[in-house]
Write a structure and sequence with these properties.
By secondary structure, the chain is α+β, with helices and mostly antiparallel strands. The chain is built from 4 helices and 9 strands. Helices cover 23% and strands 16% of the residues. The radius of gyration is 23 Å and the shape is globular.
């Protein structure tokens, strides 16, 4: 009897531990769901992106095609398509704790066919290990004397075996002068992980410099700048712009 009682008490203690663990897991799961829902409510991007991929007939009505810089803005929009995710966006797979660091432009066409151009004059670098990316150093046109960079990525096939970066910029390219509008490559689906492809697009961000003049880590939001004043468009998710996004000055960015 005593042995059975001891066994029962042990079982009861283990049940209490299990209930505590399940309670914590439930709270964590509930917190994750709440964080996800709250994050999605801070963005209006998901609906436009979903429509872009589920209804190809809607694409002309969602496309921004800016062939010249917006009035009064120094930067040229690097590619045509749906400007889906914006700077500081919280739409999936991002959230309020991990915001998007630039803009994503989803092109209409096959991978490797939608051009990507240099947003502004500068010096281009492509690190030896970069399959899908280039970065360009600029004299900041909005803050003279400061060095900034524009970063472009996802320019490769889904499996990463075929780069869509222009042949003029092979891996290892350093400090090559490019003028605004120079062809950099073509939109692709490479995410950096062959088993985790993304919808075809180009990601563009404006990156600050380290004290030594090199570029900071683009993956950290604090290392990037709001692209809105550079492109003359509302590209900060705080503005919740309707798609297609248009020039702020004239409201005429779609041709």
């Amino acid at each position: 009897m005593r042995a059975a009682l001891r066994c029962y008490r042990r079982l009861a203690r283990w049940q209490q531990v299990l209930l505590a663990v399940l309670s914590l897991a439930g709270a964590a799961a509930g917190g994750f769901v709440a964080l996800t829902l709250y994050s999605q409510l801070q963005s209006n991007s998901a609906r436009a992106i979903q429509r872009w991929f589920s209804d190809s007939s809607s694409r002309p009505t969602l496309t921004t095609m800016q062939r010249t810089p917006c009035p009064g803005a120094p930067f040229l929009l690097p590619s045509s398509g749906l400007i889906g995710l914006l700077w500081r966006d919280t739409a999936f797979p991002y959230n309020v704790l991990r915001r998007h660091t630039g803009i994503d432009i989803f092109g209409d066409g096959e991978p490797g066919t939608v051009p990507v151009y240099a947003a502004y004059d500068g010096w281009l670098t492509r690190l030896p290990t970069w399959k899908a990316s280039v970065i360009i150093r600029h004299d900041d046109p909005l803050q003279p004397g400061r060095t900034i960079w524009t970063y472009y990525t996802h320019m490769a096939s889904r499996d990463g075996n075929t780069s869509y970066v222009a042949d003029a910029f092979p891996p290892g390219t350093r400090e090559v002068w490019v003028a605004q509008g120079t062809l950099l490559g073509y939109q692709g689906e490479y995410s950096g992980k062959a088993l985790a492809p993304v919808g075809m697009h180009v990601h563009v961000s404006i990156v600050l410099s380290e004290p030594d003049g090199s570029f900071k880590n683009e993956a950290r939001l604090s290392n990037t700048l709001d692209p809105s004043p550079y492109f003359g468009m509302p590209l900060n998710i705080a503005d919740r712009p309707a798609r297609p996004i248009r020039c702020q000055a004239t409201g005429a960015a779609v041709y």
